[in-house]
Design goal:
With 293 residues, the chain is an alpha+beta fold. Helix content is 13%, strand content 30%.
């Protein structure tokens, strides 16, 4: 099953949709159905069964919908670094013996087809194609062999990085958290449709040129390892998003480095999950104080 957060011209409020072969079913318009992704996640197995049973014949054309980030306001956005051996090598680092996690601020989350900003303060803008997962149940101290129980679904992500800001501090946090620098989507694809998350082809293309191409089987620490490790420290909540690391081929490692420019189009593809595609636009620096987000 594929689920989307979307809006339309007639109804700009974000709401939950079930994606079908012919279009998208507006679940918020059906009595008893969860109207948002967070309501769906909170509903657990009961919500999943109810949504799966919805008649696909009620679908509107997908072209009439604007698809947004599947989880528009995650509570936590966590990303693991140095999680493909080839990326570790191109970075000139040693392969980590323990998982290396950092925060991306939730404000970075962006739609699957929305623009990403080339910051005013840096020209060192880079891409990182990543598999993402979303947590579906509140959980703590989850053993690896039960980690699959708390995953609500998967989608594509781009851990857009401002390299000079990233490397100013060992936490990476600010350089990984600029506004618009976390496009995800296009849909939340449920685990039953994905199958083995550790055998998915992953690619990144810039202006049609393949820059990254690998498979999630090459993850050093996989999705289940991640959940086991993180929940030893703190609780994961429904709607938390995990970025699972990027393979070799980032712009910073090219010789010479090749950073994103205004007008570039970055596409991340993952088998069974679809693709996200984002254009780089120059940020307009405007002072904003007091406006609602």
């Amino acid at each position: 099953m594929k689920l989307a957060t979307f809006c339309t011209t007639d109804n700009p409020s974000p709401r939950l949709g079930k994606v079908t072969e012919d279009g998208i079913v507006d679940l918020g318009a059906i009595d008893g159905m969860p109207g948002t992704m967070m309501a769906y996640l909170a509903g657990g197995d009961d919500a999943a069964r109810a949504v799966a049973a919805v008649d696909d014949r009620d679908a509107m054309p997908l072209a009439e919908a604007t698809v947004l980030a599947p989880v528009p306001h995650p509570g936590k956005v966590l990303a693991i670094g140095l999680n493909y051996a080839d990326h570790v090598a191109e970075s000139g680092m040693e392969q980590p013996k323990v998982q290396v996690w950092f925060n991306k601020q939730h404000n970075c989350i962006n739609g699957p087809y929305a623009d990403i900003n080339l910051p005013v303060v840096s020209a060192m803008l880079d891409y990182e194609a990543e598999l993402c997962l979303v947590i579906g149940q509140r959980c703590k101290h989850v053993p690896r062999d039960r980690a699959h129980e708390v995953i609500a679904g998967y989608f594509c992500g781009n851990d857009v990085s401002v390299r000079d800001w990233q490397l100013r501090a060992p936490t990476f946090q600010i350089g990984k958290s600029f506004d618009t620098h976390g496009p995800i989507g296009p849909y939340l694809v449920t685990p039953d449709e994905v199958g083995d998350p550790d055998d998915l082809g992953i690619r990144c293309l810039v202006n049609g040129e393949v820059r990254q191409e690998s498979n999630t089987r090459h993850l050093i620490f996989d999705c289940y390892d991640a959940i086991e490790h993180l929940t030893q420290a703190f609780t994961l909540d429904p709607g938390d998003v995990l970025f699972m690391g990027t393979p070799a081929g980032v712009g910073a490692a090219m010789k010479p480095p090749c950073f994103l420019q205004e007008g570039d189009v970055v596409r991340v593809e993952i088998d069974k999950l679809g693709y996200i595609e984002n254009r780089v636009v120059r940020e307009i620096a405007e002072c904003v104080i007091g406006e609602d987000g």
